[in-house]
């Protein structure tokens, strides 16, 4: 549960705006926040609820308000019922949070649909911006953190309009073409609305040079990308062990089995490419590019929200002895991801309150492909995060708040 010392004097009421608000991860985030607020569950999995993070004045559960965009119309309550049937949300919790789910539903708006939208992307962005500004005003929020939890998109090749903000905004006004993928349009709208942006997916999002230019212009922080929840988490813990003990890794093969919406999306090789690249990047950084590292993602529909990852590591020991390590990880990906989303919302809000801008490299701890940080060793990332929270704590105790401002 949130601690009394979390006075949040420097952060205040904070909105969490979820892109993909009716998806499995978002529904788990919302259910978890409502359950935490009501004292129904423990704070298991929440990094910001353990020392030294719990000593920082982060927004409390009562100070967090959730809204979002989605292009599907399945009611949030129905989605959580499905998660409950799958064993993810306890039935007793579902009964207690139903009214809260209905209240959040009133703050979910229709998002940008690339194939159904008519008109320019500039017009679509204005609608998204208006939703964010309205949400912030109606709930008297000091800031809104936008977090992308939508389905993974295919990689997007860089074009001229992606390189420069002025060129991008000219291209966005053209009704005959779509220059930005949905994740990047969401990032553009968030920044234009004065909102920090977090990308929990491997999609293009805020990584385009023009959007980084916009973030700098607005003085906004951002973080990403691709939340580190399961198999990659284990890899960033175990790979440094081999290096530290001078054991030569020859190959590291992995297979992921999953169902649900993610399984269906990633069954398409074009969409899976972003995820596979993100998962492989950290291993290459930790062990070198000469390690054979095949990785597969297979859609197994009956598994639903459960994901199983199997890894086979072949390595050499002293005198060339051939050895292997095999490991299996099975769990609810949404359950692993949801507390990290809440952590990231609180920490990004605090960073915004202290006037930080640009990539929050100190949040590498949470991501497979961290922006603003090349460190992939999990223990080092944890130390960097702990050091950073101490500076946040100091700054929030004596730094004036920086409220979000819309400037078009």
TrEMBL record:
An annotated Gene Ontology molecular function: inositol-3-phosphate synthase activity
Pfam family for this entry, one: NAD_binding_5
Gene Ontology biological process terms in this record: inositol biosynthetic process; phospholipid biosynthetic process
Enzyme class: isomerase
Myo-inositol-1-phosphate synthase GAPDH-like domain mapped to chain residues: 230-334
Assigned keywords, A-Z: Isomerase
Listed EC numbers: 5.5.1.4
Database matches in InterPro entries: Myo-inos-1-P_Synthase (IPR002587), Myo-inos-1-P_Synthase_GAPDH (IPR013021), NAD(P)-bd_dom_sf (IPR036291)
Domain of life: Bacteria
Similarity field: Belongs to the myo-inositol 1-phosphate synthase family.
Protein name: Myo-inositol-1-phosphate synthase
Organism: Actinoalloteichus hymeniacidonis
Lineage: Bacteria, Bacillati, Actinomycetota, Actinomycetes, Pseudonocardiales
